[in-house]
């Protein structure tokens, strides 16, 4: 990432409302070019989503920034991400949290993400190949949960795996075109829901895929 690339990225993030210093610093440290295929390398620092393997997409940097900021990750947190893709968001979370578990239903993507994280020397990420809509009961509860695929409703198993006082950020909606980013916070007596902004994500799909 050249200084010009970093500058362009930071300008885009700030102009979209990413102001949290820790989030900006984490994003400065993660070279997005590693997570896009060579075909799109020249666009790695544009504020756009790009195609990745298995017909999926790497998220738009400003959306990654806004979701991460909304999640409010603390240094001691144990975080679950559902929908690793090639692992860009997980790498950023790994700079902010104690431990990151990330689940991807496409085996090929899970393998690519694992390799990317190894290249970056990020040892606090556990990559899991599987259906993340069920969460990860054996590692629950989580302080933070980030879902990077759109669900019709916040998945029940994920709500159940949130620690009291913890929060989850998830794109919610039935449309393929626009969904609403929702922040769910677990309080002593139940869940509080806050609508944040319109987003567009690939759908959360149950089951696993080899490719
Ligand atoms: N977090 C990624 C975004 C990847 S796109 C990034 O940083 O760029 C969303 C990903 O969610 C896709 O790779 C898709 O395969 C995955 N996905 C969809 N449903 C899933 C499920 N039930 N469990 C795990 N991964 C899922």
Automatic annotation (TrEMBL):
Give me the segments passing through the membrane.
Answer: none
Catalyzed reaction equations: [protein]-L-isoaspartate + S-adenosyl-L-methionine = [protein]-L-isoaspartate alpha-methyl ester + S-adenosyl-L-homocysteine
Active-site residues?
59
What does the UniProt entry say about where the protein is found? Cytoplasm
Q: Name one GO molecular function term.
A: protein-L-isoaspartate (D-aspartate) O-methyltransferase activity
- SUPFAM superfamilies registered for this protein in UniProt: S-adenosyl-L-methionine-dependent methyltransferases
**Alphabetical GO biological process terms:** methylation; protein repair
Entry annotated with the keyword Cytoplasm: yes
Query: What is the E.C. number?
Result: 2.1.1.77
State the Gene3D superfamilies in the record. Answer: Vaccinia Virus protein VP39
Q: Would I find S-adenosyl-L-methionine among this entry's keywords?
A: yes
- At the top of the EC hierarchy, this enzyme's class is transferase
Which Pfam families is this protein grouped with?
Answer: PCMT
Question: Into which family does the record put it?
Answer: Belongs to the methyltransferase superfamily. L-isoaspartyl/D-aspartyl protein methyltransferase family.
Function, in words? Catalyzes the methyl esterification of L-isoaspartyl residues in peptides and proteins that result from spontaneous decomposition of normal L-aspartyl and L-asparaginyl residues. It plays a role in the repair and/or degradation of damaged proteins.
Q: What is this protein called?
A: Protein-L-isoaspartate O-methyltransferase
